[in-house]
Amino acid sequence: MALSIFSTDNYASIIRPQDIFAEVKSILTLIHPHFDFSLITTVYQDIVRLFTGKYQGYQKCNTGYHDLPHTEDCLLEMVRLIHGAHVNNFACAERSINLGVISALMHDSGYIQTEAERAGTGAKYTLTHIERSIAFMEQYFARQAYSPADFQFCEACLKCTGLKVKIDEIRFESAENELMGKILGTADLLGQMSNLNYLEKLPVLFQEFREGGVPGYRTELELLEKTPKFWEFTQRRLATDLDDMRRFMRDHFRLRWGIDRDLTTEAIEGYMYYLKYIIENHPSDYRRYLRRQVMLRILDELEEGKRKENFRAAR
Fold it and tell me: How big is the CA angle at 155 (ends 152 and 156), to the nearest 5 degrees?
């Protein structure tokens, strides 16, 4: 079954390499051998600074699900799909690839709170984070002298990450813009759900949803129970609204690693298999069966921080 790719076959380092940005550059070189990395390197470094609390005017990321690793996962899936599209004769100019990658890097910047936004965490902006990300990007582009056309290109890409957005109503400036946008919408979903800690991060996602006022989930267990159905919804959205960009993933793994399989989808399907097992057999103690405990420690830390904040507010 699919979970074996992390045990017997030991492909975990391929799914998520230690140095993601180095892998990103390796993949882009397969597309354009003389790719100029100056733009995306600067943006990558600034986004790392933003999430780690070193970007002027902003606090450190305080959302445990929509964090820097998620942005990196989205970035990696983005370039994998661009590479797969490239080998299927969907040629893209270097400018379009640059702007697509930059869009991936900035797509969740709206979760980061400014220094003046002291209440709660960035999760409170869950329902408005795309608009906030676009606003951050607009300010960033103005400071870095990007053109209005560059911003419009990336704005269209970021809109593709909204689950309720009607993709066919987005105004793309070109066919390449549409391709990059639909690839980003696909990469955002695949990146988070194929993360090695995806199941362990679901309780953290529930905390973000609760603070952000996302309806439909009364308890952690209910979110876990509904996640396989969310995967079914995701696959329909990938196939229809996002024009089945996922089809390019297998060719990427075949040409990059000599593995004629879509490892990203296999990982997600393995998680869904295991999650269904937990729900059916251990609903009363599901946390014991989440395999990696690091995210549960993060959740405990977030809950402890909230208790302290409530205590200070009550004094």
Answer: 90
- Quick check: is 245 in a domain? yes
User: CA-CA distance, 206 to 154, in Å (whole number)?
Assistant: 29
Identify residue 207 by its one-letter amino acid code.
Answer: Q
- The stretches of 213-293 forming alpha helices (DSSP H) are 220-239, 249-257, 263-281
For the whole model, what pTM was predicted? 0.90
Question: CB atoms < 10 A from the CB of 9, how many?
Answer: 12
Residue 225 lies in a domain: yes
Report the mean per-residue pLDDT for the chain. Answer: 91
In a domain, 313, yes or no: no
pLDDT computed for residue 314 by the predictor: 59
* Tens digits of residue pLDDT in 187-243: 999 999 999 899 999 999 999 999 999 999 999 999 999 999 999 999 999 999 999
- Could you list the residue range(s) of the whole structural domain that residue 172 is in? 2-305
- H helices of 32-127, in order, are 38-51, 68-87, 94-106
Tokens of 8: 């017997």
Q: Which residues contact 161 (CB under 8 A, 6 or more apart)?
A: 107, 130, 184, 185, 188
- CA 294/CA 192 separation, integer angstroms: 16
Q: 160 with 78: CB under 8 angstroms?
A: no
- Token pair in block for residue 31: 């597309």
Nearest to 16 by CA among 82, 77, 57, 92: 77
> How many folded domains does the chain comprise?
1
Nearest to 234 by CA among 169, 168, 186: 186
Q: Mind giving me the DSSP string for 53-79?
A: T-STTBPPP--SSSSHHHHHHHHHHHH
